[in-house]
């Protein structure tokens, strides 16, 4: 992600912004890669659920599995770290936790909002609710692990 290096170079002219950027650089990289994978995941779930006629549970599980694969390959860049076996298991575990939480919130939201709003608006509203909590939960668990791993080196 060359654009982050360019942004960092540009921000050197503004010390306060540069310091803020450096302080939150890992989060910024995590946010960007998560946003890209989220767009892919939501698009896939939407297509499978709305147009493919698949149940929301299976649509979400397939979409989030694709999201897992996408973010797994980019997370080395985000956290500037290699995965050992423990790191992979942590990554897999947090993804499963996030998938379970996301699917539970989405399914509940659809059950509540679909009769009131219809299928498409209920999907979008439910997906918004279902995305936030797992996003931050996975970020903090993964960051904590990789931060501790780097400190031990």
Q: Can you write the helix and strand succession as a string?
A: HHHHHH
Largest sheet: none
Classification by helices and strands: mainly alpha
Mean pLDDT: 81
| Helix fraction by DSSP (H/I, runs of at least 4) | over 70%
Number of strands: 0
* Oligomer classification: single chain
The total of helices stands at 6
How many individual domains? 1
Rg over CA atoms: 18 Å
Shape: globular
Low-confidence stretches: none
The CA-CA distance between the termini, in Å, is 25 Å
Beta-strand percentage?
under 5%
What can you see in these coordinates?
There is one protein chain. The chain has about 150 residues and is mostly helical. The chain is about 90% helix and about 0% strand. The protein has one domain (about 1-150). The mean pLDDT is about 80. The protein is globular and about 55 Å long. The longest helix is centred in the C-terminal third of the chain and has 34 residues, at about 120-150. The two termini are about 25 Å apart.
List keywords for this structure.
single chain; 153 residues; mainly alpha; globular
Summarize it.
With 153 residues, the chain is mainly α. The protein has one domain. It has helices at 2-11, 15-23, 25-51, 56-79, 85-117, 119-152.
Secondary structure topology:
Blueprint: H1 2-11, H2 15-23, H3 25-51, H4 56-79, H5 85-117, H6 119-152
């Amino acid at each position: 992600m060359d654009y982050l290096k360019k942004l960092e170079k540009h921000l050197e002219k503004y010390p306060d912004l540069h310091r803020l950027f450096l302080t939150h650089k890992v989060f910024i990289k995590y946010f960007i890669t998560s946003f890209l994978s989220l767009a892919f995941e939501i698009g896939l779930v939407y297509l499978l659920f709305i147009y493919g006629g698949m149940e929301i549970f299976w649509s979400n599980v397939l979409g989030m599995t694709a999201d897992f694969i996408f973010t797994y390959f980019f997370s080395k860049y985000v956290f500037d770290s290699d995965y050992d076996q423990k790191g992979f298991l942590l990554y897999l575990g947090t993804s499963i936790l996030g998938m379970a939480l996301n699917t539970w919130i989405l399914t509940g939201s659809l059950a509540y909002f679909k009769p009131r709003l219809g299928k498409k608006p209920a999907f979008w509203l439910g997906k918004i609710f279902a995305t936030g909590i797992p996003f931050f939960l996975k970020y903090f668990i993964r960051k904590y692990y990789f931060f501790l791993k780097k400190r031990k080196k």
